[in-house]
Amino acid sequence: MDQAWVKARVIGGVAGALAAAMGLAVMLGWHLNLPALVRVTPSFSPMAYNAALALFLAGIGLLAAGFRWSRVSLLIGGAVALVGALHLAEYVLGVDLGIDELLMPAYLPKETRFPGRMALHMAIALIALGSALVVMARPVASRRPLLPGLLGAVVAALGLGTLTSYAIGLQTASTWSNYPFMGFNAALGLSVTSVGVIGLAWQQGKQEKTGTPHWFPVLVAAAGIVVSLVLWQALENQQHAHIDRTVQAEADNLRQDLAARIEQQVRGIEDLGRQWESQGHPRQADWEWDALLPFDYSFVKLAAWVDPSLHVRWVVPGRGNAAYQDLDLGANEGIRSTLEHAQALRRPQTSSLFRLPTGERGFLIARAVFPGDRADGFVACFFLLNPLCSSAFRPGSQTRYALTVLEDGQETYGYRMRGVAYDDAWSAESAAELCGARWTVRVSPPRDVIQELSTKLPGVFLVLSLLPAFLLALAVHLAQTSQLRGTQLAAANLELKAEVVERQRAQEELRKQAELLDLTHDSIILRDLHGRTTFWNRGAEEQYGWKQEEVLGQVTHTLLQTKFPISLEELQQKLRDEGRWEGELTHRTRGGGEIVVASRHVVQRDRDGTPLAILEINNDITERRRAEEDLKRHVEELARSNAELEQFAYVASHDLQEPLRMVASYTQLLARRYRDRLDSTAEEFIDYAVDGARRMQNLINDLLTYSRVGTRGKEFAPTDCGKVLETAIANLQTAIEENGAAVAQDPLPIVMADDSQMLQLLQNLVANAVKFHGAEPPAVHVSARRQAKDWLFAVRDNGIGIDSAHQQRIFTIFQRLHGKAEYPGTGIGLAICKKIVERHGGRIWVESQAGNGSTFHFTIPA
Ligand code: ADP
Asked: Separation of 826 CA from ligand 1 center, angstroms?
């Protein structure tokens, strides 16, 4: 088990288990309604249920990748990426696929347009995470460690970036406006999984030479990007805060303005009330005079005294306000309760908005008066809403903000300048409590104000800080490449050195081995791959006459003027292909003589099979060649003289016949003519002469036959030996009958032969078998059997047999073992047989014991 595998298991296992546990915890939190598990603290965003499920799955996938259960991590990776892709599609295409709350209703909402949907960043991170799992699950050979490392860096950037924004309180900056924000626990889970992915990818990529995976620069770039993004977010946020403060200040100003105006009127009401209480019930004209002064009638419709029965009695200014005279305020539920409150609290109270009898929208502020602890009605002011609110724009102030006034959260007044675009996303609110009424002022800045307030600084900063991140990554990459080159170079150098050492050692070893070869008489030569002699044994020194020191480094075949039976190129090709070559070479020695050697060439290789040298062993066969050639010459001469001899014998025997016939016939003529005139001794002499002449004739005939075997033979043709034997028996019929012989035969083969010579052969052997019989009548048996490449024939008899001392001799011409009187014959028969058999490429011999019959064997090639 290699170390990387163990480490991969630990990294994948720990990160995977952690992530899965975190995902599971959040899912449980949703199911068991435990908000602490879902969003950590109430101020953080909740982690979406789908995101938790995907995180759980991704954790299992990482675990599987660590243990190299490729199929599991492949499947899970695909599923996780799909979940991410579906949510991304929802954002990008602006559609709701109905998956956000499919598994769990989002009961922990954070103000968002998409309840239950996972954050956009989470969806992107899940795609990267799933893809990384899929890529890592592929077979080792087709894997590219760069890709999972890169995807891991993306996950890390998204996770750690979000964590950082939580840490420095920049939540809004981490996602686009109004989109759900990634939960703290989701960010933590992503960070953990990214550590797992990067760790696994690192292990996968670490086999490379530099010790760091080659996607390390990507990681550096990713880290740089995260840092840049975080700082950029901080700047953005600062700018946002500035805008927020500006808008807020505007809202506060307006609210203060509004409040100040109203409070001024309230002070007037208070003064009137106090005056009433100190001086007692005034005269109507005096009061009306007093009531004219304190109020700003541009937005105060009227000041009034309301009697204890809640009817309006005195009205200032009277003109245009006749409708208010004797108005029964008790009829309006809201106003009545306001008045009652004012009386009970002895403080001015503000009513809610109502429609004035003159048609405008407005409200009143009333103070109860108690001259001498007796309730004497109210001093009240009726306010006109619209003029009041528009007065908040200070004369001359050029504010172009949209203004909205809310009472108890209800919009009561709105002002927007026509033709101005407002940015409601930046609106700010300011609340005020005005004599029991809760008013809120909301302002929205015009777009161009926001533009004025925004600077390009964060963007410029982002670009400027990303640039060094990439430059740094590039620098790391370059450093890594040069380091890799260096390592490769060093490794190659080492390898080269080792190779040189190994080669030297191997050659030295070869040389030592070769020295042993000095003991042989063969010449043993070692030469390198360029043909230069590197070793030359003592045998070579003796054979060629050069000492080893003289020939080392010289090209061997040039030195020896080698004559090759094939071209040098062919020989080298054969050595390359087969590793060896054998053949005869002609060399020239130092003394200038030519010698023929039987040469063997063998390629010597090192342990890896790389050719090192060629070993050449030469055995001087000049003498043997000479002897062979002499022998050949003798054989040729012998054949020629034999042929001549045969020709001579033929001519001689042929030409001798004529004078012999004359000698014989004239001797016989002499005997017949002069029979009566010659005495008995003379007749006996004539008989001898005639007999001698006849015998000589027989001898010459046989001799002629003998010489014809070599010179007058026919072409070989398929010959049926069975038929041939039958002819021979027929020819010998008289001798067979006379001797009472029995000739038996086995089936005989068909062979390629000269049929008349086959007839002569078999006839001679059978005739001898019949002729040399003992006391028994002759029994002859002819057979043949196949052995290897020949037919083996046998002619067996039960005759007198042949002593082993003579068994060779009888095949020689004129050799007989018996006198003519005993057995007639010339002694040529077996010599003819031998010649015929040899002409057919066979052998003939006899197996016999004296007195025990003989078996003549001969072979004919099948
Ligand atoms: P020839 O028959 O004319 O004497 P051959 O050359 O045929 O001459 O035989 C040589 C000698 O070999 C014979 O004289 C005889 O002594 C011996 N020989 C040949 N065939 C037989 C045989 N079948 N049995 C005994 N001896 C034989």
From this structure: 9
pLDDT per position as a tens digit, 97-110 = 888 888 888 777 65
Average pLDDT over residues 149-153: 82
Instruction: Tell me which of 586 and 694 has the higher pLDDT.
Output: 586
- Find out whether the beta carbon of 763 lies less than 6 Å from any atom of ligand 1: no
DSSP SS3 for 139: coil
For residue 830, give the nearest of 771, 776, 787, 788 by alpha carbon: 771
State the Cα–Cα distance between residues 79 and 594, nearest whole angstrom.
Answer: 87
| Ligand 1, atom 8: closest residue by C-alpha | 827
Contact indicator for 349, 342 with CB cutoff of 8 Å: yes
Q: Cα 322–327–331 angle (5° rounding)?
A: 155
Q: Is the pLDDT of residue 175 over 50?
A: no
440's CB contacts (< 8 A; 6+ apart) are: 405, 406, 407, 409, 429, 430, 431, 432
DSSP per-residue letters across 444-508? E-BHHHHHHH--SHHHHHHHHHHHHHHHHHHHHHHHHHHHHHHHHHHHHHHHHHHHHHHHHHHHH
If pLDDT is split at 50, 70 and 90, which confidence band does 737 have? Answer: very high
Instruction: Answer yes or no: is the C-beta of 853 below 6 A from any ligand 1 atom.
Output: no
Which tens digit of pLDDT belongs to each residue from 27-53? 999 999 888 888 888 888 889 999 999
For residue 841, CA distances in Å to 356, 707, 756, 764 come to 155, 18, 16, 19
Q: What is the distance between the alpha carbons of residues 629 and 11, in angstroms, rounded to a whole number?
A: 86
For residue 206, the model assigns a pLDDT of 61
The pLDDT of residue 844 is 95
* CA-nearest residue, atom 20 of ligand 1: 768
For residue 645, the SS3 value is helix
For tokens 């709350």, what's the residue?
A: 101
Distance from Cα 771 to the centre of ligand 1, integer Å: 8
Under DSSP, is residue 561 helix (H, G, I), strand (E, B) or coil? coil
Phi-psi region of 365 (alpha: psi -120 to 50; beta: other; left: phi over 0): beta
Is 836 within 8 Å of 711 (Cβ atoms)? no
Question: What is the number of the ligand 1 atom nearest to the C-alpha of 799?
Answer: 24
Helices (H) and strands (E) in the chain, counts: 23, 22
Lowest mean pLDDT among 13-22, 131-140, 359-368, 533-542: 131-140
Q: What is the pLDDT of residues 747-788, one digit of tens each?
A: 999 999 999 999 999 999 999 999 999 888 999 999 999 998
Residue 1 has pLDDT above 50, yes or no: no
Residue 327 to residues 1, 119, 284, 304, 317, Cα–Cα distance (Å): 99, 59, 17, 11, 15
Q: Is 813 in the pocket of ligand 1 (CB under 6 A)?
A: no
> Dihedral angle at the C-alpha atoms of 615, 619, 625, 627, nearest 10 degrees?
-170
How far is the C-alpha of 753 from the C-alpha of 721, rounded, in Å?
Answer: 9
Residue 174 has pLDDT above 50, yes or no: no
